[in-house]
Amino acid sequence: MKLHYLLTFLCGIAIFTSCDSRTDAEKIVDDAIAAHGGDAYTNSKIEFDFRNIHYTILKTPDRFEYIREFSDSTGNVMDVLNNNGFVRTVNGAKIDTLSEEWIGKYSRSVNSVAYFAFLPYGLNDPSVFKESLGETEINGEKYDLIKVTFAEEGGGEDFDDEFLYWIGIEDSIVDFMAYSYHTDGGGVRMREVSAVNVVGGIRFQNYLNLKPEDETVHVEMMQELYESGDLELLSEINLENIKVQPINN
User: Fold this and answer.
1) Is residue 24 part of a domain?
2) Is CB count within 10 Å lower at the N or C end of the chain?
């Protein structure tokens, strides 16, 4: 009888181990997503204002739609980026004369705002590769440092960008991020959380956007530059008038 119980216990351990095949980086990111909003991300339509532009963001595991609305000299502009592509309308009329170059620029601009607003939820997209760089410490707080790269297929036009995320060991909260990019001349940035708003069960974070004097440095140098005071404030990333509306999938 004791042997039977022992075998059952060992089999249970084997099944549990085989079921949880996630890497350390994947587990850390999963915990961060749960800490920032979890299921609320996939059950909500989110609206906010960023730099006098209104955004409406919807993202589920199988579909997405990002909308931005603003007024300029041409009238009331609406950009819509979703699974079907990009469409711009002005005063309700679709613009069919956009070149591929401008479609790409507008799409990247809309996608960038949506990506950062939804973090860390997007880090589980199929095109994302995650790697743990171990533990580190900033301002006396301990963090898991996660590196993120993207597959060329499904990773968008910016697939060769690299991101770093400092995720709190104690609370699984993303307090810092850094990234390198290659569009529009390229460069590196580091962001530090400056304020937090929790709306509809989702944690929205504002950031100080920091840059080094030499923007050719590798992204993995950003923590050292931050700690030595060698990053300058470039801008502030503030989301305003946030609304979260539950949806039924």
Assistant:
1) no
2) N
CATH of the domain at 164: 2.50.20
On the 0-12 / 13-18 / 19+ scale of CB atoms within 10 A, 1 is exposed
**Considering the domain boundaries, does residue 201 fall inside one?**
yes
Q: Sign of dihedral through CA atoms 156, 48, 39, 191? A: positive
Q: Residue 76: inside a domain, yes or no?
A: yes
Q: Which amino acid is at 161?
A: D
Q: Produce one character per residue of 90-102: b if its CB has 16 or more CB atoms within 10 Å, e if not.
A: eeeeeeeeeeeee
Note down pLDDT in tens along the chain; length 249 residues.
444 444 444 444 444 444 557 889 999 999 999 999 999 998 899 999 999 999 999 988 788 999 999 999 999 999 999 999 999 999 999 999 999 999 999 999 999 999 899 899 989 888 899 999 999 999 999 999 999 998 865 445 455 789 999 999 999 999 999 999 887 778 999 999 999 999 999 999 999 999 999 999 999 999 999 999 999 999 999 999 999 999 875
Radius of gyration of the chain, Cα coordinates, nearest whole angstrom: 21
Tell me how many domains the chain contains: 1
Per the CB < 8 A criterion, the answer to whether 204 and 117 are in contact is yes
In a domain, 11, yes or no: no
Cut 0.70: pTM above it: yes
Q: What is the C-alpha to C-alpha distance for residues 64 and 42, in angstroms, rounded to an integer? A: 10
DSSP-assigned letter for residue 102? H
Nearest to 126 by CA among 155, 158, 84, 85: 155
Q: Which domain holds residue 169?
A: 40-246
Judge residue 41's burial from the number of C-beta atoms within 10 Å of its C-beta, 0-12 exposed, 13-18 middle, 19 or more buried.
buried
